[in-house]
Amino acid sequence: MSRTGRLFDMTITDSTVDAAEVAKFSAMAAEWWDPTGKFAPLHKFNPVRLGFIRDLAAAHFARQGVKPFAGLALLDIGCGGGLLCEPMRRLGFAVTGVDPSEKNIGTAKVHAASGGLDIDYRAASAEILVEAGAAFDVVLNMEVVEHVADLKAYLMACAKLVKPGGLMFVATLNKTLKSLALAKIGAEYILRWLPPGTHDWNKFVEPQALTQLLVGAGLNPLKTQGVAFDPLNWDWRLSDDTDVNYMIVAGR
Asked: Where is pLDDT greater, at 152 or 12?
């Protein structure tokens, strides 16, 4: 994929980007790398999703070593401040981080530069990348699908960005009464883990529905993995419980 020319000359129009969601996260952009700030729950959640991505990708591509993914290209779409991009770069991927928020991208660029990491950060959308003919070995869609304007159209666009033989990881929230109680009411209004209004429960999606959408987009779902909060250790862990948080990995 070229990093010059038409790909990044385009503007974010006529896409599945939800402008209200972009504004919401742009307002918190300066706090992405504060482990005690508004993104503190994501910092706690990060190790379990990183491990899941690393292990599944290593098995799929038959890779090992200190930088097992050297020579492979990864896209983190809806990358925010780069919490996933940086460790993925350290694992050897050539990383492109894309987010429709200029402020998020600004935060990500500054933090990556401070660590000497060469990550290609751009304010763009899935549709922009598709129109430019971009393709990646791995596409990350982590905690993004519940914030887009048109889920079906968004996944159709993202699927086109996965190379033949590549993988897409999707992490999101199940639409259950349990997720309403814990991830929405509990997390935002009782425990105050997240700013009120961070999530819209109506945009949460059941694993079965997400699986069908991925199949319709031309991908082959390979694994569905629940993630649960462990109150005894105050940490996240992989689980068979998909009632609240879950991840799906799909191949092309």
From this structure: 152
Mean pLDDT of all residues in 217-221 = 98
Q: What does the pLDDT average to over 194-200?
A: 72
Q: Could you give phi then psi for residue 105, rounded to 5 degrees?
A: -65, -40
Query: Which pTM does this prediction carry?
Result: 0.86
Burial 122-160 (b: 16+ CB within 10 A, else e): bbbbbbbbbebebbbbbbbbbbbbbbbeebeebbbbbbb
| Top-confidence residue, 10 or 55 | 55
Cα separation of 40 and 42, whole Å?
5
CA distance 145 to 155: 8
Whether 144 and 78 have beta carbons less than 8 Å apart is answered as yes
Among 185, 18, 186, 204, CA closest to 99: 18
Residue range 75-100, pLDDT digits in tens: 999 999 999 999 999 999 999 999 99
Cβ neighbourhood burial of 98 (10 Å; 0-12, 13-18, 19+): buried
